[in-house]
Amino acid sequence: NLENPTELVERDEVFTIQHACLNRALSFCRVIETFYFPNVTERTKGQVDFVMSSFPELGLAGPDIPDLLAAGTLDAGSVVGPYVAGHVPALEIQYLFGAFTSREEQFLTTAAIAPEIAQLLADESGGGKLIVKEWASGNDIFFFSKKPLLTPEDFEGVKTRAFGTSISDWINGMGADAQFVAFAEVYAALERGILGAGVTGGDAGFGQRWYEVADYITGPLVSWPANDMVMNKEIWESLPSDLQAIVLEEAAKAEMEMLRLGAIQNEVGLLKNVEIGGMEYTEFSSELRAKSDQAVIEAVIPNWADRVGLDSPWIGVFNEKFSPVVGYYIQEDGTVIQVPKEQ
Questions:
Q1: pLDDT digits 0-9 by tens, 180-208
Q2: Using an 8 Å Cβ cutoff, are 99 and 110 in contact?
């Protein structure tokens, strides 16, 4: 309750907790490090000492984060749906690329399924506690490419960096050739010509200086997902109740800060690549938008449904909580149809 903040109990003990965030260059990791952690330190008078780290610094790829949390190897870490989709396909429901026509749609659906996601994360991480929804502000997806991508024909066969299964389905549906490449390795792959393009958020691509190795930026694909900061069960349960409450209260404030940044960060991310990075921007044509919609209906959603299993309760979650917002419905045979939006 932010209107009635928890009172701190004075004690001498200090709880040091290391968090492995995806990449320090990303907006949500910056909010975690420069806003959330200092606020927790201040509120707890130093009793909770969060230490920031990242996947590249720890040599982590991402798919094994839930297992590392369950084993206690990590105190806390970012669980990124596309990275763990091979093991936990249900989690990728938050990242069905192309299904959303506005950030509001993705926010509404992500908020609607938050309880189910929290339980899924607990199940997959040995009882881990969801602390923060890491809203990826500035994450509208763009193609950063070596050559112009103006027509469907331009996309054909272009080796394109992907970071998960659903985004690969969308990239392939656009006619390109999806290649899984870790975020920190994309710069070199573009520079050496191993990749012809990479996809990521405008702000994220700028942070990694992709504008130095790609000349064209094309998009956007609406994308405002939330990764999940999860804490190891034993670490969480070792915190006294007042510290647990304060950690969650400050987490709520951090989420609000991420949401505030989301109102401007996508536009700023694109502008930085164009005005500072010198990239040439082309907005998706109506023909490319139609190609994207086709990829959603024929690949992104039905392939996800097949991965979770047509008898999975997550199909019901999608049809109950997603369909009224995004206008797609999964039928019993796994095919996807468009239905009227109710919200």
A1: 998 889 999 999 999 999 999 898 899 89
A2: no
Q: Got the DSSP string for 214-228?
A: --EEEEEE----EEE
Distance of CA 198 to the CA centre of its chain: 16
Tens digits of residue pLDDT in 85-132: 889 999 999 999 999 999 899 999 999 999 999 999 999 999 999 999
Own/partner long-range contacts of 108-112 (Cβ < 8 Å, ≥24 apart):
108/325, 108/343, 109/321, 109/322, 109/325, 109/326, 110/225, 110/226, 112/321, 112/322, 112/325
Exposed / middle / buried, residue 146 (Cβ in 10 Å: 0-12, 13-18, 19+) = middle
CA atoms 172, 179, 25, 88: torsion sign: positive
Please check the confidence at residue 261 and state whether its pLDDT lies above 70.
yes
| 196: region left, alpha or beta (phi > 0 left; psi from -120 to 50 alpha) | alpha
pTM, 2 dp:
0.90
pLDDT (0 to 100) of residue 204: 86
My answer on whether omega of the bond before 220 falls inside 30° of 0, hence cis, is yes
Neighbouring CB atoms inside 10 A of 293's CB total 16
Q: Where are the domains of the chain?
A: 15-136+226-265
Q: What is the pLDDT of residue 343?
A: 67
Question: For tokens 């707890």, what's the residue?
Answer: 44
Residues 6+ apart with CB under 8 A from 123: none
Tokens of 55: 């996947």
Q: Are 78 and 135 in contact (CB under 8 A)?
A: no
Superfamily of domain covering 15-136+226-265:
Bacterial extracellular solute-binding protein, family 7 (3.40.190.170)
